[in-house]
């Protein structure tokens, strides 16, 4: 039997079910235990997925746990990851990786000292549609990418989330909550960012929850909910990134990339699949046929219909990379650079000045169809 690394999850909230449910589809990992500051939550998840319930301290001390998956709230991502690293465990964190670049750089030093790896979500950029866009770029179909746009527009979380408070406090907001999907995808497509600028605002200082069980309750808003950003990439490409939770409707595409030889309209990077449209020069825009990529295949039912959801792919890739002695794609360097960009955008919104990046990174290796199949326990 092929070797597997033991995985323990800290944080048994809603997102944990995604990891527990999808992990068996991948090589190299085996879910073994879960922990939460609320033991009742840990026991419930352990029973649901036939795992071992632990205290956080017990999980970090467990000899059969090689990788700790950090699914706690963003405010404690740094502290939980630090404890796991200091315990000699590899770490894979949900997004946002940390809330300050100094914390990410501290974790890097600790990981290097302990000889362990760190990875971080999002891994949706490993999806078939986004990797097809990467293939078009790498093979020169678009020519040099010179500019582009990103838009993530909605009216916030208070309409559906039962406890939306933290989304509207420092550490929340559309940049830190949804920005990782967009920015990580741009970096894997184009490369690192050199500097950013932004304007930001808080149009509504108070929100009314309309979801149960707290419908009608007022919550304060203390972090920007509309941000209009500029990003200058190291290769000279310039992009706009507009993120808002103050918009009822928008006709903007999630992402558009403009190259010297053509344009691509990309699907929402919050998801693995979706429609990719492409035009070469003056030719009409056309929808490209789906790539023969396993992470394009619909595998999960949603209200909108069947969708492709392969969250946990980044974790599996890291586990296999550890065993194979190669770099992993959802890397610490990528995660830190994404945090650098996002916190730089927020800082620029406060200061009204350009902010230079403190970090850089290499583009992660592409994940073509064959490489993606190599991550799956049962090849599709």
Automatic annotation (TrEMBL):
Record's protein name: Dehydrogenase
All copies of domain GFO/IDH/MocA-like oxidoreductase, residue ranges: 130-264
Key word Oxidoreductase present: yes
One Pfam family from the record: GFO_IDH_MocA
Tagged with keyword Oxidoreductase: yes
Signal peptide extent: none
UniProt keywords, alphabetically: Oxidoreductase
């Amino acid at each position: 039997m092929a070797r597997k690394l033991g995985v323990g999850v800290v944080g048994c909230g809603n997102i944990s079910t995604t990891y527990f449910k999808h992990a068996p589809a991948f090589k190299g990992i085996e879910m073994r235990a879960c922990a939460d500051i609320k033991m009742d939550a840990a026991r419930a998840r352990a029973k649901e997925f036939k795992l071992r319930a632990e205290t956080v301290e017990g999980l970090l001390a467990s000899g059969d746990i090689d990788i700790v998956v950090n699914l706690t709230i963003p405010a404690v991502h740094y502290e939980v990851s630090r404890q796991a690293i200091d315990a000699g465990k590899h770490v894979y964190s949900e997004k946002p990786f940390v809330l300050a670049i100094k914390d990410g750089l501290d974790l890097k030093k600790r990981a290097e000292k302990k000889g362990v790896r760190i990875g971080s979500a999002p891994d949706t950029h490993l999806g078939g549609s986004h990797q097809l866009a990467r293939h078009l770029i790498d093979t020169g179909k678009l020519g040099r990418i010179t500019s582009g746009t990103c838009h993530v527009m909605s009216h916030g979380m208070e309409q559906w989330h039962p406890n939306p408070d933290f989304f509207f406090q420092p550490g929340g907001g559309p940049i830190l909550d949804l920005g990782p999907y967009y920015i990580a995808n741009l970096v894997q497509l184009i490369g690192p960012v050199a500097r950013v600028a932004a304007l930001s605002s808080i149009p509504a200082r108070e929100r009314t929850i309309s979801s149960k069980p707290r419908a009608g309750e007022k919550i304060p808003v203390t972090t920007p909910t509309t941000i209009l950003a500029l990003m200058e990439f190291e290769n000279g490409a310039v992009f706009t990134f507009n993120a808002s939770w103050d918009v009822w409707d928008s006709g903007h595409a999630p992402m558009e990339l403009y190259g010297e030889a053509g344009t691509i309209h990309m699907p929402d990077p919050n998801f693995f699949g979706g429609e990719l449209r492409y035009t070469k020069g003056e030719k009409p825009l056309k929808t490209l046929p789906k790539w023969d990529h396993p992470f394009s295949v619909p595998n999960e039912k949603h209200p909108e219909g069947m969708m492709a959801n392969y969250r946990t792919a980044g974790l599996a890739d890291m586990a296999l990379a550890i065993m194979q002695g190669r770099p992993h794609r959802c890397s610490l360097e990528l995660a830190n650079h994404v945090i650098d960009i996002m916190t730089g955008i927020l800082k620029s919104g406060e200061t009204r000045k350009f902010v230079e990046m403190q970090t850089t990174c290499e583009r992660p290796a592409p994940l073509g169809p064959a490489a993606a199949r190599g991550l799956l326990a049962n090849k599709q």
